[in-house]
Amino acid sequence: MTQPPVPADVENYFYDLNPASRAVLYPVIDVVRDAMPPGYELGMHFGMPGWVIPLRTYPTTYNGRPLSYVSLAAQKNYHSLYLMALYSNPTADAAFRAEWAATGRTLNMGKSCLRFKTLADVDLDIVARSVASVSVEAFLATYERIKH
Questions:
Q1: Domain assignment of residue 3, yes or no
Q2: 100 lies in which domain range?
């Protein structure tokens, strides 16, 4: 499937990063983009590149902003990949953590934020499977279930 072009503001975000951060984050965003189910939209949200469910698809969010699905950011001392579907689904979160543990890699993760310093710290196959596993419809069903 052909992916839509990367928005200029997202490209500018990466352009403004130092070369070391770009070298780590470009492969991650490429894997996430290639695994992204249809219906999510890439743009700049909350100061970082991320995929959301656009308001034209689901306008009744709790804060009037699009629902975030996956975001990526360069922090001062590490990089972050926010996997919001894990935050809202304890079963998927537990499966992700178990699969990660089986790799022998150290998992540095909060509720949705996977933190990593180098590309070697990230299992891109697990990330791709996780991202690809949640359709817009499934994400919205979970959101509807937990918002009430």
A1: no
A2: 8-147
